[in-house]
Amino acid sequence: MIDDIDFSKKYEYNVDVYHDDLGELGNATLSFGAGNLVHLHFKNWLSCRALEDEKTHRIVKAKTSNNEFFTLFDCVLSHSTLYANYVIAGDVTDEFKCIEIRYSNISEWFMSDQGLKGEIGKTLKWVNTTQQFFVSVKTNEEEFSLTSKSMNSITQSGENYSINEHILFSFERLDARFAVQDVKDKAYELSNFLSILIAYPLSIVSIQVECENERTHCAYFPTFKKVERDESKNNFWLECLISKSELDGKWQAIFENYYKSVYRKISWFRLAGMQRYEGFWEYKTLGYVTLLDKYVTEFSKANGLKTTIPGNGNIKKLGTELTKIKPSINDNLHNRIMKIADSIFSKKREPNFIEKYEFTMNATNSDIVKIINLSAADFKRIKDLRDAIAHGHALEMTDNDYDRMPVIVAKIALLLTYWAFIDFGLKSDDFMNCLTRNHNQLRRRADPDLVHLARIRNPEKFFMISQEEFEKISRVRNFLLGACFTEDAQGALQYSEQHAETCQKWWKNSSKKTGRIYAHKDIFSVKKKQLKIVYDAYVECGDKQLVCSPLYIFTDSISSSSGDILAQSNSG
Question: Helix (H, G, I), strand (E, B), or coil: what is residue 27?
Fold first, then answer.
């Protein structure tokens, strides 16, 4: 019995083919895997004459000389080759109790906090084991449960032992049985959901289905090839947009929202699919802007955006004439007449893309809008380009446009990802926390406004100084090597040349102390309570900022127990 089918590998078997109604169909070669179509190539085309060309045959079965069975679903004959949408290793029907799916990369993210502790030769055990989830979902079409679970194994090769642990996701139908189409649907639904959350395209490694007799069978269907990455780097979880721990305790709610979302099939499936697109930049631009257009269209329609063209000046004249009627009509009747006239003579029209986009952006968290920083000029430029590409017009592009387009497209992708997070039931604060994870490629490509992000997340790290002080420090050579200020009783900061000089001399001293450094005594020789140190601080005046890390603030009033953002550092 075949107990594993790796979606990334090719498989080929010599089989005898038969059909429940048509009987034996002859000998053929069964091939599938590595993203390729499932197909049976008959060695003698006369043997498959019973199968009509281009007619769909629900189930065709095959058997190897070792009595290994395969069931092929949704088969169509073309000349001497029979193509199938699915193949399952085993003699099965089209009803399954359970679908279990393994994806590439996701186990590293899911178990990022987990590790081994102990001593080889004595006892090794997992520590900080990951929290699994169990959710149940009920929609208008189906009811099912979804569970995550760890699978592990130890293999030996010579003197080497390898420990493998990975995550499986198990769907179980609660109100009926899964059909073979559901195998693909459920695999894509979950991979799309997880891909959006981590902002990285997942691929299917393997799938197993469980039948009524509780036997499990491997399944395969042609799908996307795995996105390659350098797996020698054990930091994949750092590259993910959201951490798994931020979702613990929220799985039930976000899965319910995802499966009930009106945007799931029209927006989120496509957003996840666009993550793996690596083709011509024009098509990528066209794809993302079209996704943006569709989302704002659906959002504005659901939230009541209506646009009308007012009636001509005769409406106003009617109102004037009504006031001249004798005896005069009351205000209530006057308003009713005007409303009827307006409904007759005013023309309704569909809002255009710009209006729908502006309506949706106005309904979006204002801090998120500022952080993603998709400017009006950026939107106009990318919309004009989309229109030109869609209609096959020649593009008028500058060198700056070519450099800017990938950034604008990434901003749109990040904005759509934010809207997906909100649709799933996550909060704006959750998304802003994700944007502090600076290893994520989508976040890096989108070039968000990190100053505004820092201002929202850590307002205590921003310090306003006078124009005079800002001009002074702007002229100081190597200012960041000694960003030192004194703070008066009112909290105003003043640049300290004395402390700055002390700091710069200490850093330039090749014999300076190594190891753990206490800046108050090792650098400045002051009491601990007189020095506050702020890392990743911003000194600003108006719209101008300087980033200082660290920023040294000297004061006599600070309490040594204040705790704030302080300071003892390994780097001074």
Answer: strand
Helix 353-362 to helix 281-302 angle (10° resolution) is 70
Other CB atoms within 10 Å distance of the CB of residue 487:
18
pLDDT at 93: 94
Query: How many beta carbons lie within 10 A of that of residue 111, not counting itself?
Result: 19
Cβ atoms of 59 and 38 within 8 Å: the answer is no
- Where helices occur in 425-518 by DSSP H, the ranges are 428-434, 441-446, 450-457, 467-474, 497-508
Reference 256, options 146, 110, 96; nearest CA is: 146
d(CA 89, CA 549): 60
pLDDT computed for residue 461 by the predictor: 95
Q: Identify whether the C-beta of residue 414 lies closer than 8 Å to the C-beta of residue 443.
A: yes
State the pLDDT at residue 463: 94
User: What is the distance between the terminal CA atoms of the chain, rounded to a whole angstrom?
Assistant: 64
Report whether the peptide linkage leading into residue 351 is cis, meaning its omega lies within 30 degrees of zero.
Answer: no
Give the alpha-carbon dihedral of 329, 332, 335, 339, to 10 degrees: -120
Question: What was the pLDDT predicted at 37?
Answer: 96
Q: Are 182 and 86 in contact (CB under 8 A)?
A: no
Ranges of the chain with pLDDT below 70:
308-313, 345-347, 510, 512-514, 556-572
Contact 81, 43 (CB under 8 A): no
Report d(CA 271, CA 258) in Å as an integer: 14
Phi, psi of 350 (to 5 degrees): -75, 135
Other Cβ atoms closer than 10 A to 381: 16
Q: Are 178 and 170 in contact (CB under 8 A)?
A: no
Size of the chain in residues: 572
Q: Quick one: DSSP state of residue 279?
A: S
Place of tokens 């083919």: 17
**What is the predicted pLDDT for the residue at 209?**
97
Residues whose CB is less than 8 angstroms from the CB of residue 94 and which lie 6 or more positions away in sequence, other chains included: 58, 59, 73, 179, 180
DSSP string, 153-187: EEEEETTEEEEEEEEEEEEEESSS-B-HHHHHHHH
Question: How far apart are alpha carbons 151 and 108 in whole angstroms?
Answer: 13
Question: Which residues fall within 8 angstroms of residue 354, CB to CB, at 6 or more apart?
Answer: 383
Specify burial of residue 395 (Cβ count, 10 A radius: 0-12, 13-18, 19+): exposed
pTM: 0.86
